[in-house]
Amino acid sequence: MEKKxxxxxxxxxxxxxxxxxxxxxxxxxxxxxxxxIAGNIYKGRVQRVLPGMQAAFVDIGLEQAAFIxxxxxxxxQYRDIEAQxxxxxxxxxxxxxxxxxxxxxxxxxxxxxPIEELxxxxxxxxxxxxxxxxxxxxxxxxxxxSLPGRFLVLMPTSDHVGxxxxxxxxxERRRLKSIVQTHKNDAYGYIVRTASEGLSEEKLIxxxxxxxxxxxxxxxxxxxxxxxxxxxxxxxxxxxxVRDLLTHEVEKLVxxxxxxxxxxxxxxxxFMPGMKHCAEQYTGSEPIFDxxxxxxxxxxxxxxxxxxKSGGYIVIxxxxxxxxxxxxxxxYVGKHNLEExxxxxxxxxxxxxxxQIRLRDIGGLIIIDFIDMEKSVxxxxxxxxxxxxxxxxxxKTHVLPISELGLVQMTRKRVKQSLASILRxxxxxxxxxGYLISRRTVCHTIYRALVRDAYDMAGDCLTLRANPEIxxxxxxxxxxxxxxxxxxxxxxxxxxxxDHYHLEAFDIIESLRD
Length: 514
Description:
6-stranded antiparallel beta sheet, globular, CATH 2.40.50.140, 14 helices, 6-stranded mixed beta sheet, 4 domains
């Protein structure tokens, strides 16, 4: 599979596309007025402890206070207990902030004291942002710090050494783990990342020293900095993509900014000199995303309905609580029998669903309503196909078998805003409802308002101002409503269209005839 990174740098935003076989697989967007702070480390102060929620608010210098759960608070009483957890997948490869969450999971099974015994209001706290602010929710922070490098992730609050699951060779896994354990002369933990596969012992040792020095610097800043303060800032989106995505699997990096290109070369020269040949500056006159035909994929990722090649389609509905995905046969009628048609549609939908979830960066609870299948063997095929399709997703997913109602329940780790929440905003017209009151219903509402107000108004004429479409309907198909009002009240109704009126808005004003 051909993979490349395509980076578009503008004054107002940077977009990084991971392209697989000519199609966007993942898109990262950093707008310079957005609070993309995941991965940053702050010196914060506890504002309020909430025993009922076993959580606390922490002031880290942003408009919204950050939120910390009890499991994310380091309990020094259990600092030296060796964690019992599986060797996690590449902790920072999907997103640097995953490292912080994975470190937190190390302590999930340990005895945990109540948060009111761990934190007090006014207490200073060293915290790592595991999730940027999303919507009205403030950032989520943790005291389980993690510092991702190119080959390793340093975990100062754990002494465990883990190896990425993506390194499948057992002998290589043992070699890498042995190197780290042999040269670990501190109580810190390390995660060996996928990019370390085949790496020399010397390079691993150098990165261990680099990360340890970085952690020492952060601690020194913590002791002298005021509260709240930013102690360590994560790399910007382009350099983060270079560090985390530019591996032996990615054949090329293309960037359209001369300054950005030089920064990438400088970063590669320092940390990944063997990869400098992969970087290329785009100098074409056509916008880089247009040149690689990527804008269409982005537009398609914002649509509610996504068509399948067979003629079927899926519908993706995002709500506050969950994301619902519905599969339909659409125009596809099949060739032999109904069960075969349904199975083929479901299997085709599986690939598109996995792709859309990854591209849109949908997180949280996801419910998939496949077309009902009578045969259990077909349900099993669809379920297994979904699990296989999700293996390419670097965010953690958990999928339950198809239920008796034909539904699949799954979760996907949510770290940052979805693509839709970045690129869209609620409709100013329907205010996010997704529907408007029908024009006929608005006419009937106006009729009732005229009946109610006519007798309280002294004038012999009623002036109605409304949206032009409503005014046209009242002059035409619904004119009987106006005639009825005039007959009942003896007052003339004059209708004036006004472009400034919302479709559902209107005003009734009393006036006198000339």
